[in-house]
Amino acid sequence: MKYLIWFLLLLLVILNIGVFISSIRLADEISFFEIETKKLHRENVELEKEISFYDSYQYAASQAAELGFIKKATPVYLENLQYAFKQ
User: Fold this and answer.
1) Is 62:68 a contact under the CB 8 Å cutoff?
2) Using CA of residue 42, residue 46, residue 47, residue 48, what is the dihedral sign?
3) CA quadruple 62, 67, 69, 73: dihedral positive or negative?
4) DSSP letter string, 8-68
5) How many CA atoms lie within 13 A of 52 on its CB side?
6) pTM for this structure?
7) How many C-beta atoms surround the C-beta of residue 50 within 10 A?
8) DSSP 8-state code for residue 71
9) Domain that holds residue 24
């Protein structure tokens, strides 16, 4: 009976050490994934800024000018009232 109690106590100590080691590994994994999450969040913010830049009218206008898609509009002056009076 005495050996059975010592055996169970030793078994519990070994199981406790195993649980302790696995909890340390799990804590390391959690730390790794928290760091990865922060990196992905930063990258996501940078990509959102880049998307907002490429989605802006200013970028579209600059690309249109660079590619020659801008047509020079002729101004309409109000001194010539043919548009206002349909003459």
Assistant:
1) no
2) positive
3) positive
4) HHHHHHHHHHHHHHHHHHHHHHHHHHHHHHHHHHHHHHHHHHHHHHHTSHHHHHHHHHHHT
5) 6
6) 0.56
7) 10
8) P
9) 2-85
Name the amino acid, one letter, at 6: W
Tens-level pLDDT at each residue, the chain (87 residues): 889 999 999 999 999 999 999 999 999 999 999 999 999 999 999 999 999 999 998 998 888 888 888 777 777 666 666 555 555
Give the chain's domain count. 1
Residues making up the chain, counted from first to last: 87
CB 83 within 8 A of CB 76: yes
- Which residue type is seen at 43? E
Q: Which residue has the tokens 């206008």?
A: 61
